[in-house]
């Protein structure tokens, strides 16, 4: 882990996020995001202008809440037949570091198990993290971009959050 405590805090937050997602604690996961945060899964592997290009997912706070509701409330195929997941997040590279925030790139490998089948999802992930003066427990994600390595090919419906 990094010697810089700001980077260490950002890494700890990404690991916490991964754990919440694997445990299907989606409401706690959503609480890690600021109100203005974006959760993005682009299609074009080369784009940086996510607001003006087609994405698999481009969720603001309202859409994240709706997505969490579909995964946790009532009868929804995404919730009833959801895959079990285990993910590893590693290869952390700080892109920028300040006293108020960290942009952190990493690699994520996710194994999903559903209907006696294992699927592998691999992605380069960029987290924009706001560091809180209140301490690490108050740090929040302001943007997460998940660039699947096969984003420009047909991608099956996931039934879980990346």
UniProtKB/TrEMBL annotation:
<comment type="similarity">
    <text>Belongs to the bacterial ring-hydroxylating dioxygenase beta subunit family.</text>
</comment>
<dbReference type="GO" id="GO:0019380">
    <property type="term" value="P:3-phenylpropionate catabolic process"/>
</dbReference>
<keyword id="KW-0560">Oxidoreductase</keyword>
<dbReference type="Pfam" id="PF00866">
    <property type="entry name" value="Ring_hydroxyl_B"/>
</dbReference>
<dbReference type="InterPro" id="IPR032710">
    <property type="entry name" value="NTF2-like_dom_sf"/>
</dbReference>
<dbReference type="InterPro" id="IPR000391">
    <property type="entry name" value="Rng_hydr_dOase-bsu"/>
</dbReference>
<dbReference type="GO" id="GO:0016491">
    <property type="term" value="F:oxidoreductase activity"/>
</dbReference>
<protein>
    <recommendedName>
        <fullName>3-phenylpropionate/cinnamic acid dioxygenase small subunit</fullName>
    </recommendedName>
</protein>
């Amino acid at each position: 882990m990094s010697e810089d405590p700001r980077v260490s805090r950002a890494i700890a937050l990404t690991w916490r996020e991964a754990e919440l997602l694997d445990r299907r604690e989606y409401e706690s996961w959503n609480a890690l995001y600021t109100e203005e945060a974006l959760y993005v899964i682009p299609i074009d592997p080369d784009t940086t202008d996510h607001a003006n290009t087609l994405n698999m997912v481009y969720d603001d706070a309202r859409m994240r809440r709706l997505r969490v509701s579909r995964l946790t409330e009532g009868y929804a195929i995404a919730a009833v037949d959801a895959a079990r997941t285990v993910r590893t997040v590693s290869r952390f590279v700080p892109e920028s570091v300040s006293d108020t925030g960290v942009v952190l790139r990493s690699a994520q490998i996710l194994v999903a198990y559903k209907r006696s089948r294992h699927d592998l999802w691999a992605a380069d992930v960029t987290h924009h993290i706001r560091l809180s003066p209140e301490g690490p427990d108050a740090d929040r994600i302001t943007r997460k971009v998940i660039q699947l390595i096969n984003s420009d090919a047909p991608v099956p419906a996931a039934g879980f959050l990346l």
